[in-house]
Amino acid sequence: MIFSESNNEIAQALAKAWGELETPKHNSRVKVQTKNGGSYTFDYTDLAGIFEVANKVYKENGISILQNASTKELNGNLMISVETMLLHSSGEWVKSEPLQMPCSTSMQDMGGQITYMKRYSLSAMLGLATEKDDDANGASGNEYQMQEKPATDNQLNYVNKLLTDMEKNSDKSRDELYQGIKKRMGTEKDMEQWAFEDASKAIKILTTKKSA
């Protein structure tokens, strides 16, 4: 997170708001079909549901929630970037690091991407868990595994392109670069098992200067 130069007022307001903020109830459910023919279902809180629990608390503490979505070309690819800012009445602020992913070619899909990224960015800024749900399997004694939102094809294709481009200007092999990125990410998972957040982290590392 990035804070304004002065942050005494907003720090106090955020600490107070945190003590009053309640975890939102899940109000949406989605069934996801995986590439291997399987599927999984998870419940989550949509963007409106997050704002519903946050607006009153933050308003009472003099904090506004601002979100911005923009697009820009990076290494020949059009990227969507979403930032979330908490603005205090004193003029102090704190904002998220940009959350980025390759932009869809469809306007409808792009709108869905932006909504999804805003939800993740906002829930992370507020420290809210909006997707944890075991569908009552734990209470029933059944085995279950929580599912993360998987990385998209656009994300993985872009990571592969960035690695290929980096190899052309490096004395390291593509595999060495790949393993180096995984090490910096703090993961041993192969790309095919990455979650949405893993791929976003890899893209951020690869598009930052001196990432090799």
Describe this structure in words.
Strands 1, 4, 5, 6 and 7 form a 5-stranded antiparallel beta sheet that branches. With 212 residues, the protein is of the alpha+beta class. It has 6 helices and 7 strands, in the order βαββαββββαααα. Helix 4 (153-168) packs parallel to helix 6 (196-206) and helix 5 packs across helix 6. It has 2 domains: 2-147; 148-212. A hairpin with a 2-residue loop joins strand 4 (63-74) and strand 5 (77-88). It has helices at residues 8-20, 47-60, 107-126, 153-168, 174-185, 196-206, and strands at residues 2-3, 28-33, 39-44, 63-74, 77-88, 93-95, 99-102.
Tally of structural domains:
2
CA-based shape = globular
Helix content: 40-55%
The radius of gyration over CA amounts to: 19 Å
Q: Low-confidence stretches at least 5 residues in length (pLDDT < 50)?
A: 133-147
Largest sheet: 5 strands, antiparallel
User: How many distinct beta strands?
Assistant: 7
Structural class: alpha+beta
Structural features:
2 domains, two-stranded antiparallel ribbon, 41% helix, 21% strand
What's the topology here?
Layout: E1 2-3, H1 8-20, E2 28-33, E3 39-44, H2 47-60, E4 63-74, E5 77-88, E6 93-95, E7 99-102, H3 107-126, H4 153-168, H5 174-185, H6 196-206
Antiparallel strand pairs: 1-6, 2-3, 4-5, 5-6, 5-7
Helix pairs in contact: 4-6, 5-6
In brief, what are we looking at here?
This protein has 212 residues and is α+β, with helices and mostly antiparallel strands.
